[in-house]
Structures
1.
Amino acid sequence: MSKLIYDWSLSKFKLHEKLVITVRNKDVDILNSSIRSLLKANGTLQGTEYRRSIAGRKESYMAGDRIVFQKSDKDLQIQNSEFATLTSVNKNEFVAKTDAGKEVSFDPSKIQFKHGYASTVYKAQGASIKDVYVLHNGVSNISSSYVAMTRHIERAENYIAIRKQLKALTA
């Protein structure tokens, strides 16, 4: 995964123009956390961080973070799996600009969302992204690989989790 994250960091594309895609939520969480740490370390993400607890996990957000909505909301006119960039954050209100260009204000305690630097194949279905990084692992199959590989507009890079695959073959 470190090679993937390194390559992602060198991309000429803007944050909203690139996405890491994989099958498992566990890998998405690791990738999101690693990418976000990199963005904080290199100064891309700056400012006040706001924490929230979701299902026993603490997550931090700040202006500039990429998010993906986890559930549709009719009042806000947002869709499940819609990606956005946080433009401002405070304790009771986050403001995000969706990739479609719409500005949305919401109470972070009432809307389901998570970091959106990486996504599962299923969340990315239907998306068109300029720069895509696909992590294939022991649970990837031809269908999920096809969906992941057809999300890119300009560039797609493939990464294979060899250690995991070898371990699965010898088990």
2.
Amino acid sequence: MTMMTLSPVLPDLYISRRPSQLQDLSNPQIPVDPIAPSPIRTTAPVSKSLHRRTATWDPISSSAPEVCSFDSSPPGNQGHVVIDIDDSDANDNSEDDLPDISNFDIAKIRRRSQLQRSQSDVIPSKSRSRSKPTTTTTSKKSAADRAREKEARAAAKEVDKETKRREKQEAKEAKAREKERNAALAEVNKLRTDKKVSTPEMMVDIPSSLNPTITTQLTAMLEPLDVQFTTWESPVDNVIKWRRKVKSRFNDDLGLWEPIPLRLQDEKHALVVMTADEFVKLALDDELSSHVEKMERHFSAHHILYLLEGLIPWMRKNRNLRNRQFTSRVRAQEASACNSSRRNKPAESYIPEETIEDALLQLQVMHDVLIHHTTIPLETAEWIVNFTQHVSTIPYRKQRDQATLVAGFCMESGQVKTGEDTKDTYVKMLQEIVRVTAPIAYGVAQEFTSVSELVRGLEAGGPTRLEGVRKSANKDGTFSDRTIGQAVSRRMYKVFTGQDETSTDV
């Protein structure tokens, strides 16, 4: 049996066939495919007695030595698969699976030849030579891209700079707005119970029917107070009313005044300026009630005030007239025997004083009207200014009274004395106790420098602990020979150590 080795195509594959069916592939006349990697070699039968050549390792050579020669059989250590192509019936399945050797197309087998390897070695250089224009184009594109990127970075930087500038400007404006808001909040939360602060909020509506003398003096007094004034046609003669420039609103939740947009608000007060002659005429004609009803009809939600000018001098003059009339009647009786042809001046009529007093009581009791008296036009103008200042503080005083409603004592300014420092406050606190004078307070403060020390001293010494404490002669600490005494000592002991909640001893 002839053995054939297909080393390039089927490594380590040996095919056995009959001699009659084996094609001689060693004949040089048979055309060979030049692209094929190597020709198919045929190996003559070699006896098993031939010794294999021993392959030695060349340490200098970069390649390993050949393991087997041309005429040697394949090495035994490699796992070869030998296919016996015999016409036996036992191998029908194997012949059906493998194609016939005559139909075996070696050209279809993909195998890299030396030419292909040399081509692959040359291709990189060609690709490198061809890639030079591409690199130049890429470099040109890269330069354009870099220019665009530079412009984009510059634009982004400019946008970022503009954004930061805008944010900085917005932060600055927000800070300015916050500062203005805090300033406005502080402005509206000033002590508005002070008439000097609240008066500029007022606007005075002066009636056109008011005495020009009073109007001139009134406007001259309102200008220094920064109070605006206007003239209006009153439905009732000589009625002055007020309006307020509201710029704040009290927040009950926060407990402070908040600024709001400016608006004008009518005050619920109306002032009637009336001369003595006008008032006496209304009282004599019994038309005073009609006048009050007319005021209530036009100023229904207002508190009405009557400013009576010259009524007190008129009443004094009326009393003098009564006295003169009495004297005249007495003298007339004495001169009845004399010449009666003398013509006397017509006497003024006396108005009963009770009529005027009843009219005043009617205003106060029946109509709940506030009455104030003035003597001359200048005083009338001054009191209009005083009423303007008082009306300006009304809402703020109401709010303060509402806030201090829970307090058990008066919270008006000046009711409670305040000290300059801790010691002075301590001394003034001791003086609020009944029968504790300033010398006693300074003597106790010199003995016990704080309230806690005083309480501990009283608890340790008992009710008579302060009995022998000397009184102070002055604020510098000089003591006199007099002592506090037992009564004051017991009172102070009861005040500072007592636990009776219903006690009123202070």
3.
Amino acid sequence: MEVFGTAELGLLGGGEGLRDDIDMSAISWSADHLQDDMYPASGLAVAAAYHDIKIRLASLERENSSIKRKLKHYEVKFPMINTFGEERVYFSCQPIVKDNNIVQSETSNLQHRINSLTQELQKSKDREEELEDVIQAYEKIHLEKSNVQRDLDKMLPQSGRALGPQAAASGGRVGGSAASG
């Protein structure tokens, strides 16, 4: 940093910026003061900066073309807006009145559509709540079934031991008939 003096600070925006009144003879630029590995590093820095600028420029060009495409799309969709975004002036009130009637008609149609969609949404929410209730009831029944099955599994091995191996093998039947529970 000492080697380049204030000229580097001026170029990098370090306070003074570029100035014409700097005495260039006071700044020493000779290669004797620079180390041998400094040139490749500055070359790499320039190459990296060039690459970054090139990438940013390409990105901005893509963004610009995207904005232009959107603008053309909106110009087609909304013909009252020209390329500069200013509204065109109508000289006759007749088309505006017709357009106003069309807008009112479309507004009422859209309002009707919104109402029907709101009703469908409410019905869907009601069905969803009913489905949640059915799922909860199913889960409750499944849990009760699991509890009953677990209790039954606990009872069968105990009753099998109490009655002996023949009773357990016959499924808990006593005398050939099913035991009533």
